[in-house]
Write a structure and sequence with these properties.
Strand order of the largest sheet: 7-6-5-8-9
Helix content: 40-55%
CATH architecture of the largest domain: 3-Layer(aba) Sandwich
CATH superfamily of the largest domain: Aspartate/ornithine carbamoyltransferase
Structural class: alpha/beta
Number of helices: 12
Number of strands: 9
Shape: globular
Strand content: 5-15%
Oligomer: single chain
Order of helices and strands: HEHEHEHEHEHEHEHEHHEHH
Largest sheet: 5 strands, parallel
Distance between the termini: 11 Å
Radius of gyration: 19 Å
């Protein structure tokens, strides 16, 4: 038998079976947050963040508490890593005290190294390259709206080809969905390596992957329209005017939403900049499910902690 999945470092680490199990458990945690209130009893979980956070921090600390554990929140300058201690040494020390480590930081390589040297589960709660915990919350929200049958449905991301766009492609490919990413061409498009990986997964899952540059074409008939802020943490301010000019045609407005399916929904991982990537009357309108998405950050992180610490996930071997 192959070893269980120890860490969630990338969206692509999860098999479809893993995702299905996590969504099922998270759905149960949504109904009864304390159904496994002793799973982490008398245990601690480190939550290490070098990026500011609202949803991820609240979701992570609440998830640990609902499992009976104690969250230990750590900023970048709280640790000796800020004074030159190596990532490998830090990973080993945290492993001696805690049962899991949740990380929100800039470099994917830092999370990979923490996973390599930690003996406990490491969960990527956001890097510049990926956002797997967000996508689990997104897909649970999608499932609540449309059920498991996604045939003839189109799931569209519009805007900057960032970490969320990358995770959207990989998760959608794994789930066998028709996923579309609409971005400007060139440097605001998703990385070609991510698109190649999504297409490779799609060949096995039966998914359909599209990367286009026309937002109207992309959203026509869509069941989901998803967007994110145009300027992410770590983006160069020198690029702001050029980037916003390039992305302006990709703003999600009521006119754009009129092209979607009748039962379509609007999604956003938040925080949002109303009047920039999304119109106020869209994000605060009847089709918006952004608050349910945010709620499921807790349920899905709780499910991840529950199953990773038990060794229940198999990963993509």
């Amino acid at each position: 038998m192959s070893a269980p999945l120890k860490d969630l470092l990338r969206t692509s680490d999860l098999s479809k079976a893993d995702i299905e199990l996590l969504l099922e458990t998270a759905s149960k945690f949504a109904k009864n947050p304390l159904r496994a209130k002793k799973a982490l009893a008398k245990r601690t979980v480190a939550i290490y963040m070098t990026k500011s956070s609202t949803r991820t921090r609240l979701a992570s600390e609440t998830a640990v508490a609902h499992l009976g554990g104690t969250p230990i929140f750590l900023r970048g300058d709280d640790l000796q890593i800020g004074r030159g201690e190596t990532i490998s040494d830090t990973a080993k020390i945290i492993s001696g005290f805690c049962s899991a480590l949740i990380v929100r930081t800039f470099a994917q390589s830092d999370v990979n190294e923490l996973g390599k040297y930690a003996s406990i589960p490491v969960i990527n709660a956001l890097t510049d390259d990926d956002h797997p915990t967000q996508l689990l919350a997104d897909w649970l929200t999608i499932r609540e709206q449309f059920g498991k049958d996604i045939k003839n449905r189109k799931f569209v991301y519009v805007g900057d080809g960032n970490n969320v766009a990358a995770a959207w492609l990989i998760m959608g490919a794994t789930m066998g969905a028709h996923v579309v990413v609409a971005t400007p061409g060139g440097k605001w498009a998703p990385k070609s390596s991510v698109v190649e990986q999504a297409n490779k997964i799609a060949k096995q899952s039966g998914a359909k992957i599209e990367v286009v540059t026309d937002p109207k074409e992309a959203v026509t008939g869509a069941s989901v329209v998803y967007t994110d802020v145009w300027m992410s943490m770590g983006d160069s301010e020198a690029d702001r005017s050029e980037k916003i000019a390039a992305l302006s045609p990709f703003a999600v407005t009521n006119d754009l939403m009129k092209l979607t399916a009748k039962d379509s929904i609007f999604m956003h991982c938040l925080p949002a900049h109303r009047g920039e990537e999304v119109a106020t009357d869209v994000i605060d309108g009847a089709k918006s499910v952004v608050w349910r998405q945010a709620f499921h950050r807790r349920t899905t992180i709780q499910a991840l902690l529950y199953h990773l610490t038990k060794g229940d996930l198999k990963g993509n071997k």
